Amino acid sequence: MKLLVVEDDPDLRRQLVTALENKNYTVEETADGEEALYLGQEYPYDLAIVDLGLPKLSGIEVIRQWRDDGKEFPIIILTARGDWQDKVEGLEAGADDYLVKPFHMEELQARLNALLRRAAGHSKPVLEFGPIKMDTTGRVVYRHNEPVKLTSYEYRTFEYLVLNAGKTISKSELTEHLYHQDFDRDSNVLEVFIRRLRQKLDPDQDLQPITTVRGLGYRFALTADSSSE
Fold first, then answer.
1. Which domain, by its residues, includes 41?
2. How do strand 75-79 and strand 47-51 relate by DSSP bridges?
3. pLDDT at res. 193
4. Cα–Cα distance for residue pair 179/181, rounded to 1 Å
5. Domain with 187 in it: what CATH number?
């Protein structure tokens, strides 16, 4: 999943980016509101973390313009202000949740996990698809209750397909949502990730969790157990 971090404090921004990248998220960053507005309008993100006190353009205005433009990705606002009006204004502008500085990275992680799950229609942190489970908190995949060893790229690819289960995802969409702008966009690289995932998740070739839709892309074809909805 690709996240956008908008924070003008360089130390906090670096802490956020490092912590999220360590959790296998793809993270892009900016320090000012004008660039944030542009990035959110031009590139696909799965979630944005936005400080309210930004230079050039306030976080409130960035969020308001994104929503006016039809951008629907979840947004968590950060604020050092204790005034409840700021939180209300941010939520009314279109944010989905908020954190007041200082905060624990674990709390931010829990909140963004919950927002990403809800955006995909799931309420519980562990998603089950027959013998395959994905723990969105620990960011671990299991097959028959045994952990599957995935690289960070493989996990990102699998997670995006799972959270869009039943939809056909093109190679270009996968690339845009999972990798940095300077990622090698040779489609053969993505095909390698998909092939490895299939081998690891379905070594007996009896599940076919990831199917190819010829000329269109890939689809996660398993149905979620009702207990994980």
1. 2-119
2. parallel
3. 86
4. 7
5. 1.10.10.10
